[in-house]
Every structure is written in structure tokens, then in C-alpha cells.
Amino acid sequence: MLGEVPDPHAALVELRRVLKPTGRLVIGEVFFDPDFVSFAALTKRATAASFAFERRLGGGLSYLARFAPR
To answer: What CATH number is attached to the domain comprising 39?
Structure first.
């Protein structure tokens, strides 16, 4: 869904704001989605919104990525 949001940075900042300190953000992407966000782009966006990467499952065509608040 992140690729469909008009302002992904604002969405991530808001998710960071409302997430509990012990919470986690998990984002899943699949390549056939026309709004696919690559793992590298997602990590860059999440880091800019004060998230720290924790774990990734999957490959280049589909993945789940977990981030923690910083």
C-alpha cells in the first residue's frame, strides 16, 4: 500500500508517531503490484522516518520487511 500513498514519507512519519515504543512495522511487497516498492527504496524511506531495519523475509520479487522505531 505504501506505493499507492500520495506522500509515503508523511505516512511513515505518522505510523512512527502512533506506534508504541515496543511495536514493529511490517510491510509486505509483491513484484506484480504496479506500485511495487523495492526493498532498497523502502529501507531508505523507513530510515528517513526514524525506523530501524530489523529483518527481511523473501527475495527480490516478494518480501516482508520488519522495522522498529528508533
So the answer is: 3.40.50.150
